Amino acid sequence: MKKDPYQTFKPLNTEAFAGLLESIKLLGILQPVITDEKKFKGIIDGHHRYKAAKSLGWKDDDIPYTIVTGLSEDAKRLLSRSLNIARRQLSSADRRQAIIDQIKETPHLSDRKLAKELGVSNGTVSSLRRQLVDSDELCNVTQITGEDGITRRRPIVVRNPSRYEAAVLRDNPDTIKMMQDKELTNVTYTQRLVNLSAQTESVSDNVFDENRIKLIHADLRDGLPMIEDNSVDVIIMDAPYERKHLELYEHIGSIGQRILKDGGSALVMAGQAIVPEAITAIHKHLEWHWLITLLYTRKPLLAHKRLYANSKPVLWFSKGQYSGKIQADVIQAPESGEEWKEYHPHGQSVEVFKTLVEAFCPENGVVADLTCGASTTGVAVVLAGRNRGYMGVDIDEQHIETSRLRIKAALVEAGRKT
User: What gap in Å lies between CA 53 and CA 33, rounded to an integer?
Assistant: First the structure.
């Protein structure tokens, strides 16, 4: 059965619907059904009242209703949700979810306007929007429509800025413009991008073709058909560690089996907690070869596991029998620093990835990273030299743009710019 587009809540359960029937039998319909111009074919509020009345044998002419006109589809759903929030006995979880659903449906409406329409506090809407943005469930919007119906550029909101961030916002209009244009919220990160843009302003995009570098904005779950079969010498990547992303690992194996040259390797850095499942998924398509261990000097405490973690696993698979040179299975990483995370929250050491590139990719070979983020792998390929090519893929367009700037800067450093 096709769901009514304006029914924004779950249907009443059997017991609640039976109670509604009894109420209508005794008292009639106390709250008119709200419809659009299509009358009962466009019910905005009162779906259950209408259904109950019809089941009692009422004719449409007997059912009280109010027609509202001139509303957009978004406005009709907002009205439906606001009336239900006000009238229904909702649990706090259901109320919270209703507000989240509305924010996702109309992210261009200001927090104040949504709060007023839904009958909740501005702080509640603002807090939930911030949570959605922080968890990547919602993008920041650059244009916002306020209570007065006027659309304006969304102001930049930086909570508790450091002295450095405050100075950047005061003295660097280019940073503010980039934050607005690219919907960025991190001042320090944006300032780094502005600096990279300035450093590489004279570097032509032709430098990517000349150095066999390709950046691809795509979802690896679509199979990456733009990468040719048997064209890659080694895959080197830091895959997502969260269990919710486990499905990606079988795609990594499937794509690897297609794009790797015979005897080529796939080196996949993975979270310790999901190593068994990750190996099983990739092994459906590629041969398991060995485990490489990266040793770090830092020892972060994982209290829930009751251990100090100073290593990371790199899962080593091959397409057929590995045919490269003899390798070591332990790599000592340099002392970690904040610079690893300068361009991506999960950034890794360029030196570690450069070591892997030099060990596994031959001269004139090609390295691919299927979840490249800010392209630490790409920077490592450039700095490793010896005419190696690179293909970086990411689902996030901003990561691809950051990769472009970082790789240009690395080419300048390596003396390979045009």
Answer: 11
∠278-280-284 over CA atoms, to 5°?
A: 115
Alpha-carbon gap, residue 395 to 398, rounded angstroms: 9
Q: Between 294 and 135, where is the model more confident?
A: 294
CA distance 85 to 176: 37
Residue 1: the pLDDT is 40
Q: Are strands 213-217 and 389-394 parallel, antiparallel or unpaired?
A: parallel
Using alpha carbons only, what angle is made at residue 248 by residues 246 and 342, rounded to the nearest 5 degrees?
95
Q: Report the distance separating Cα 4 and Cα 27, nearest Å.
A: 27
| CA–CA gap between residue 65 and residue 262 (Å, rounded) | 70
CA 341 to chain centre: 17
Q: Give the single-character DSSP code of 206.
A: H
Which among 236, 205, 196 is positioned nearest to 390, based on CA atoms?
Answer: 236
Alpha helix (H) ranges present in 172-295? 173-181, 187-199, 206-210, 247-259, 275-282
Report the alpha-carbon distance of residue 9 to residue 134 in Å, rounded. Answer: 26
Q: How far apart are the first and last CA of the chain?
A: 61
For residue range 24-46, what is the model confidence (pLDDT) as tens digits? 888 888 888 999 998 888 888 88
Pair 101, 128: CB distance under 8 Å: no
Question: Residue 60: what are its φ and ψ, rounded to 5°?
Answer: -55, -40
322 closest CA partner among 282, 389, 266: 266
- The residue among 267 and 76 whose pLDDT is bigger is 267
Side-chain half-sphere CA neighbours of 291 within 13 A: 12
Name which of 291, 299, 294, 229 is nearest 264 in CA terms.
229
Whole-number Å distance between alpha carbons of 241 and 244: 9
Q: Which two tokens stand for residue 18?
A: 């039976």
Q: How far apart are CA 114 and CA 177, in angstroms?
A: 26
Up-side HSE of residue 341: CA atoms within 13 Å toward CB? 7
CA 317: distance to chain centroid?
A: 27
For the chain, what are the domain ranges? Answer: 14-153, 163-196, 203-413
**C-alpha dihedral (216, 218, 221, 222), degrees to nearest 10:** -100
Two structure tokens written together for 332: 């000592």
Does domain 203-413 fall under CATH 3.40.50.150? My reply is yes
